[in-house]
Write a structure and sequence with these properties.
By secondary structure, the chain is mainly alpha-helical. Helix content is 54%, strand content 10%. It is built from six helices and two strands. A two-stranded antiparallel ribbon has the order 1-2. The longest helix has 15 residues. The chain is elongated, with a radius of gyration of 20 Å. The N and C termini lie far apart (41 Å).
């Protein structure tokens, strides 16, 4: 059973892994299918050493597992629950305030803070 401390550790590991844009790109690629360092480097236009360093971090965080296959190593997301959760996170729609003022009553943005629009969205 997960304790509060282990849950915090999980959140810290996920945060560490996903705060780096390169690691996020690698995770997104591995969500689609397992990958090999050489192929990931080619697909993501990165150096192999860069990919290997990030894969090491992702392994250390427990997010990916490595399976030796002859002279190559295949990487994949470590757990189906994690893959499902990452897919859910990727599909989240964020309401980011870009500083653009609301257009008033003619605003069609469902996340706008105009009271009339908000009431229409919830109705």
């Amino acid at each position: 059973m997960l304790t509060i401390a282990s849950r915090v550790d999980v959140m810290n590991r996920l945060g560490r892994a996903m705060t780096d844009p390169t690691r996020a790109r690698i995770l997104l690629s591995l969500l689609e299918k397992p990958g090999y360092p050489v192929q990931l480097a080619h697909d993501l236009e990165l150096t192999r050493s860069n990919v290997s360093n990030h894969l090491t971090c992702l392994r250390g965080c427990g997010l990916v597992v490595a399976t030796p296959e002859g002279r190559s190593t295949r990487y994949e997301i470590s757990d189906p629950h994690l893959a499902h959760a990452l897919n859910d996170v990727v599909n989240v729609v964020l309401a980011v305030d870009d500083g653009t003022p609301c257009a008033g009553d003619s605003c069609n943005d469902p996340f706008c803070c105009t009271p009339n629009t908000a009431a229409e969205v919830t109705a």
